[in-house]
Amino acid sequence: MTELSSNGVVAYDVEDGIAWVRFNRPDKRNCMSPTLNRDMLAVLESLEFRDDFGVLVLSGEGTAWSAGMDLKEYFRENEAKGLGATRAAQREAYGWWDRLRWYQKPTIAMVNGWCFGGGYGPLFSCDLAFAANEAQFGLSEINWGILPGGGASKVAAELLPFRKAMYHAMMGENLTGVQAAEWGLVNEALPLDQLKARVTEVAKVLLAKNPVALKATKDAVRRVREMTYDNAEDYLIRAQEAANSFDSEGRKEATRQFIDEKSYKPGLGAYDRTKTGA
User: Which PANTHER family match (predicted)?
Assistant: First the structure.
């Protein structure tokens, strides 16, 4: 059963272990307004530690994923109120992107349509991303005289090779979903009518894995990107020790199935968590 956020601009439902969260301003191509940003944070917080799902998928209602920040409500109206209002709106937007980036459970961006400008923030915040071939990705800021701010330039630099990041940011040309996959903005692109099935398939694979290990893994990959090798090595040793301390039974059960039962092959999938509930 679909539920709506307090202002109706976020829709969500939980089904078969997957939380499907959607931008719900289809008439505005799901542009992010201050109201949407507040509602999205509230929805993410209300869902994060529920036991009835293990993977969160972020998508959009209608023909867009998110066309970025709402020019009228987010920019013009707040700028008219002064710097304080602008900073408050920025904190609300960046706040839920940050919450999503370090979310307790794996997250997948299912980009069903337009993804522009500010939409790159939550795109990067999701652990994995899949797009429809028909989707459109764009940093159009240069076309109306500003730089790609709000983290968009950082996302381009993080996900794309240097020359492609420069071209994408400076030219203001759109990428299709297919090009976005080729360039590295998303993991895969496929026809729109196959997108949800593929995302569901990936989510089910994640659901079979140890949730403590998944959280530790996604955090580790994000953290080590900015570390030297030696610092990353030390961090990963400590992170592994912490994960083992928090869930030692899961690791022991996997080892038992591999060595004693010979029923589990790590290269071919996850161990059977139903034997311990780990």
Answer: ENOYL-COA HYDRATASE, POLYKETIDE BIOSYNTHESIS ENOYL-COA HYDRATASE PKSH-RELATED
Chain centroid, CA 87 distance in Å:
24
Predicted local confidence at residue 247, as pLDDT: 63
Distance in angstroms (rounded) separating the CA atoms of residues 258 and 252: 10
The Cβ-side half-sphere exposure at 239, using a 13 Å CA radius, reads 19
Q: CA quadruple 74, 3, 204, 251: dihedral positive or negative?
A: positive
Which pair of tokens denotes residue 1? 């059963």
- The Cα–Cα gap between 202 and 198 comes to 6
H/E stretch holding 54 reads strand 53-60
**Under 8 Å between Cβ of 221 and 213:** no
Residues of the chain short of pLDDT 50, as ranges, are 277-278
Residue 65 CA to residue 235 CA, distance in Å, equals: 35
Which residues face 235 on adjacent strands?
A: none
CATH topology for 3-207 is 2-enoyl-CoA Hydratase; Chain A, domain 1 (3.90.226)
Tens digit of each residue's pLDDT (9 = 90 or more) over 146-172: 888 888 999 999 999 999 999 999 999
Provide, rounded to the nearest whole percent, the portion of the chain with pLDDT above 70: 88
Domain range summary for the chain, segments of one domain joined by +: 3-207, 211-275
Match 């939380």 to its residue by tokens: 19
What is the residue type of 34? P
pLDDT of 257 reads: 59
| The total number of residues written for the chain in this structure | 278
**Per-residue pLDDT, 278:** 45
Q: Determine contact, residues 100/62, Cβ cutoff 8 Å.
A: no
Residue 273's φ and ψ, nearest 5 degrees, are -75, -15
